[in-house]
């Protein structure tokens, strides 16, 4: 489903590569957690997957699409196939909860009827059905993040990428968000989650990929946070 | 196909909603567009009026040929026919001796003694050919044609009349009209250019305010037209409304206030001609203004938003 082959990304030659020959293979329906310290290269990895950045070298293939052969005008089509949840939510400020989620469907030219059918169902999955008409600024952080998740899954993508979705949330809300991700994964979506949160990694007991100084330091099935971080050069302080 | 149709409708609707929501910015952009389009329209009318004045002056300029008395009627007719064949000649008037005399008397109607003198001396006025050029700049070529030996021998020594003072006067008029025409065209182009820059800036400011929104749309996989379309629609609405407003302003200026305008002297400008020109070309001017409004709006917004829609192409 996701294939990276010796992917290197260098922003500035003096600083060395942000990602250094990273190879990663994620099967369909897998739930993969990516951990690593700040600046380890997690965000760069995700930006490469959504084609916000281009790799300096190496190959990326997602869902059969070879990024080397991707033309500019096909990038929107690629992004429609991947759901992305950002740490800073990235909700449209002038639109209601309903409109924010509907926007993802408007992009692909869904009819009004389709939108009116689908959006409430998805908002129900993230437990926000009663807050459809609210504006994003009237919601708590956890609620906003769940709107972002609803928006990411409303098009039923095969892949969901979540970049530290719990980074700004208290533990209770963080778990709300993780539960939703697990639910989506059970429905058959491949999930790629980056996080700093030890508790979440330990309880989920999923495959954990550790990135350290731009390299894959370890890649273990059903791992715990401590075990995963052991392989890094400098242990995390948390 | 159906999805494309839905998307097209959505782009138009979003553009209209944005127009209403961003009314203040819309008013700012439109104020500048209205001024621009009004200046352009005004320049076009003034230019046409200048052109008209210039044409009027030019149409009165001719090269006069005076024939010797011994030239026969047949020779004169042949000569006139030869002149008429030239493509640079607009009109030829031939007056035989009697007609020339009658014309001279008519032109000097107030001067009794001159009239008597002309009649008593047995008509010294030569048969005359007035040659009008298609274009003032062709006067020299006409003169060259008329002074060919076979034609020159038919003429009196002071013919043709494109010499000395008269030549100087004609040359001055030609020069002045050429400058006026070019100045008019240059003014229209300069005004149009400046206003496109200002409008472009205003729209870019509006887009800059919403750059985060554009980036989010991009990340969610919105196509270029899906993001750009509403901005273009919004700018086209500015253009359409501004075009109508500019026509109304000019209408107020030339039609409603024409009486007070005419009372003041504008020198070279014939206000009644301007008014007629505006009324005669009302629909075509409206069409031009609408087209300009749409083009200025659409092109400025497309260029202004381009920067925010680019994908990273470099590998660095």
Name the descriptors.
heterodimer; A: alpha/beta; Rossmann fold; 2 domains; four-stranded antiparallel sheet; 34% helix; 23% strand; B: mainly alpha; three-stranded antiparallel sheet; 13 helices; 74% helix
Task: Characterise the protein shown here.
The complex is a heterodimer of chains A (238) and B (316). Chain A folds into 2 domains: 1-69 and 159-238, P-loop containing nucleotide triphosphate hydrolases (Rossmann fold), CATH 3.40.50; 91-156, no CATH class. In chain A, 34% of the residues lie in helices and 23% in strands. In chain A, the strands form 2 sheets. A 6-stranded mixed sheet of chain A has the order 6-7-8-3-9-10, sandwiched between helices. A 4-stranded antiparallel sheet of chain A has the order 2-1-4-5, with helices on one face. With 238 residues, chain A is an alpha/beta fold. Chain A has helices at 42-49, 75-81, 97-107, 112-125, 141-153, 171-186, 198-204, 225-229; strands at 2-9, 19-26, 31-35, 57-62, 65-66, 82-85, 159-163, 190-194, 207-212, 215-220. Chain B has a 3-stranded antiparallel sheet. Chain B contains 13 helices and 3 strands, in the order ααβαβααβαααααααα. Chain B is 74% helix and 5% strand. Chain B is elongated. Chain B folds into 2 domains: 2-57 and 174-309, no CATH class; 68-158, Alpha-Beta Plaits, CATH 3.30.70. Chain B has helices spanning 2-21, 23-59, 73-84, 97-107, 112-120, 139-146, 149-152, 164-209, 211-219, 224-256, 258-263, 271-280, 282-309; strands at 63-66, 89-95, 128-133. Chain B has 316 residues and is mainly alpha-helical. The mean pLDDT of chain B is 79. The chains are: A alpha/beta (238), B mainly alpha (316). At the A-B interface, helix 2 and helix 3 of A face helix 1 and helix 9 of B.
């Amino acid at each position: 489903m996701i294939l990276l082959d010796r992917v290197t990304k260098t922003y500035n030659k003096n600083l060395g590569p942000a990602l250094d020959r990273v190879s990663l293979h994620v099967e369909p329906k897998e739930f993969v957690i990516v951990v690593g310290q700040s600046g380890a290269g997690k965000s760069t990895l995700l930006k490469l997957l959504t084609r916000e950045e281009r790799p300096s070298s190496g190959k990326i293939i997602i869902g059969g699409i070879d990024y080397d052969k991707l033309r500019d005008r096909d990038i929107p089509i690629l992004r429609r196939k991947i759901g992305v949840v950002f740490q800073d939510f990235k909700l449209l400020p002038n639109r209601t909860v309903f409109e924010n989620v509907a926007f993802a469907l408007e992009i692909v030219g869904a009819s009004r009827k389709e939108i009116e059918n689908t959006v409430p169902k998805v908002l129900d999955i993230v437990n926000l059905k009663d807050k459809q008409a609210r504006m994003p600024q009237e919601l708590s952080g956890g609620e906003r993040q769940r709107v972002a998740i609803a928006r990411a899954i409303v098009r039923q993508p095969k892949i969901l990428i979540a970049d530290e979705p719990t980074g700004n949330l208290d533990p209770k809300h963080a778990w709300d968000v993780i539960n939703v991700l697990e639910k989506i994964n059970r429905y058959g979506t491949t999930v790629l989650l980056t996080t700093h949160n030890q508790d979440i990694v330990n309880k989920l007991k999923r495959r954990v990929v550790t990135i350290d100084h731009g390299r894959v330091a370890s890649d273990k099935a059903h791992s715990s946070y401590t075990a995963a971080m052991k392989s890094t050069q400098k242990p995390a302080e948390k | 196909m159906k999805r494309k149709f839905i998307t097209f409708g959505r782009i138009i609707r979003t553009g209209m909603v944005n127009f209403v929501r961003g009314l203040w910015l819309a008013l700012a952009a439109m104020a500048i567009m209205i001024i621009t389009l009004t200046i352009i329209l005004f320049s076009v009318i003034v230019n046409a009026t200048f052109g008209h004045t210039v044409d009027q002056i030019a149409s009165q300029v001719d090269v006069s040929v005076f024939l010797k008395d011994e030239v026969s009627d047949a020779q004169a007719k042949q000569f006139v026919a030869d002149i008429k064949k030239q493509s640079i000649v607009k009109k030829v008037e031939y007056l035989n001796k009697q007609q020339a005399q009658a014309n001279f008397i008519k032109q000097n109607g107030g001067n009794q003694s001159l009239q008597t003198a002309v009649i008593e001396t047995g008509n010294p006025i030569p048969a005359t050919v007035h040659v009008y050029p298609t274009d003032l700049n062709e006067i020299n070529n006409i003169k060259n044609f008329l002074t060919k030996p076979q034609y020159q021998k038919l003429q009196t020594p002071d013919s043709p009349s494109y010499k000395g003072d008269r030549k100087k006067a004609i040359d001055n008029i030609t020069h002045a009209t050429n400058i006026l025409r070019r100045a008019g065209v240059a003014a229209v182009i300069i005004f149009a250019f400046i206003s496109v820059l200002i409008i472009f800036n205003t729209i870019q400011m509006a887009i800059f305010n919403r750059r985060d929104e554009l980036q989010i749309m991009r990340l969610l996989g919105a196509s270029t037209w899906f993001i750009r379309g509403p901005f273009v629609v919004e700018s086209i609405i500015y253009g359409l409304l501004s075009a109508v407003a500019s026509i109304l302003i000019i209408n107020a200026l030339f039609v409603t206030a024409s009486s007070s305008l005419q009372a003041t002297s504008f020198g070279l400008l014939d206000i009644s001609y301007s008014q007629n020109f505006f009324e005669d070309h009302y629909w075509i001017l409206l069409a031009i203004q609408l087209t300009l409004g749409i083009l200025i709006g659409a092109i400025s917004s497309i260029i202004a938003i381009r920067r925010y829609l680019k994908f990273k192409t470099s590998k660095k």
